[in-house]
Amino acid sequence: MKIKELRDMTNEELSSKLKALKQELLNLRFSNATGQLANPMQINVCKKDIARVKTILTEREMKNKGRA
């Protein structure tokens, strides 16, 4: 997922995206544990996407605190 795509999303969309990514990570971990995951690098990609979403949410939170 591109950072530009994430920055264009609203906070609500980012929150729902974060929830979906966490669920995807859970499913990937289960698949990996059972040996059904073809590409284990998907786990790392998912973790990085989660980090990107959290970073943007934190940036926006800090930006809003600075204004208040």
Could you describe the 3D structure shown?
With 68 residues, the chain is mostly helical. It has a single domain, classed as Helix Hairpins, CATH 1.10.287. It contains three helices and no strands. The protein has helices at 3-7, 11-33, 41-67. It starts with a helix and ends with a helix. 6% of the residues are buried. The model has no long low-confidence stretch (mean pLDDT 95).
Total tally of structural domains:
1
CATH class: Mainly Alpha
Helix and strand pattern: HHH
Query: Strand fraction band?
Result: under 5%
The secondary structure category is: mainly alpha
Give the overall form: elongated
Record field, number of beta strands: 0
- Say what the CATH topology is: Helix Hairpins
Rg from alpha-carbon coordinates: 14 Å
The main β sheet shows up as:
none
Residue-averaged pLDDT: 95
Quickly count the helices: 3
Distance, first to last CA? 31 Å
Briefly summarize what is shown.
The chain has helices at about 5, 10-35, 40-65. With about 70 residues, it is an all-alpha fold.
What topology does this entry show?
Blueprint: H1 3-7, H2 11-33, H3 41-67
Helix pairs in contact: 2-3
Keywords:
68 residues, mainly alpha, Helix Hairpins, 3 helices
